[in-house]
Amino acid sequence: MTATDEHVHPRHRLFDVLQNPIRFSIAAALDKAEKLSFREVRDAIEVTDSALSKQVALLEQAGYLKVQKGFVGKMPRTTLALSAEGRTAWKAHLAALRDIAGD
Amino acid sequence: MSDENAQLSPVAARSLLEDARRISDRAHNAVRWPYITFLLALGLTTSMGTLGMAMTEGNAFGLVYVATLAAFFASIIFFLITTQGSLAFAWSKRWAIYIGAWLVPYLFAIGVMCFAHGSLPLAALASGLVFFVTFTAAIVEAKR
Fold first, then answer.
1. Helix crossing, B10-55 with B93-115: angle to 10°?
2. What is the CA radius of gyration of chain A?
3. Which of A42, A74, A91, B73 is the most exposed place for a label (fewest CB within 10 A)?
4. Which residues of chain B have a pLDDT value below 50?
5. CA angle, B12 as apex, A17 and A4 as ends, to 5°?
6. Chain A residue closest in CA terms to B11
7. What's residue B30's pLDDT?
8. In angstroms, what separates the C-alpha of B129 from chain A's closest C-alpha?
């Protein structure tokens, strides 16, 4: 970090992709649980399937989310996990929030 | 930086941090309880079972043996049903350690039952170890 960086307000270190409430909640749900099914994330953050699908696609495009599609028996199952990049961004985003909060 | 960031107050930031913690805990807890329950059930079943079998003979031994097996398989079935479709705790090195840590005192307890049948101090020690190990594993799992 340079001397200039030290004086940058922490809000500049927030990640725009994670500003959306649903995307923020998805990242939060996957933080500790590490890997969850689509259904488990949907239930944890209380959104509709379509709303979750849309935001999952955006997070995946941003490279923050790993999405795996498979089958359990004959039932399709989608698995969600934060990518390494996503996890780094999430931690940096939380750190910036903590700085803004003055913690 | 978006415009909304420029307006983010310390209070709003604290609120977001609290939301993140709450959602993270809720998602984790929702998929974690079957694993903790299984570890406790495994410990309780096998420790009480080995203690009972080490201290009984004849019909009583048979009853304890059958009850232990029934409870053990019930735990396994419960575990398989409740974790079906859940991915949060796929088999991992951590679980290999839990099961390995349970297996060592369990085999010791079986040894006590076979070679020191009727010895209350040894049976209590071995069965106590079985429960202690699984209880510790459950605490570790709960705190993750």
1. 20
2. 15
3. A74
4. 1-3
5. 65
6. A101
7. 81
8. 30
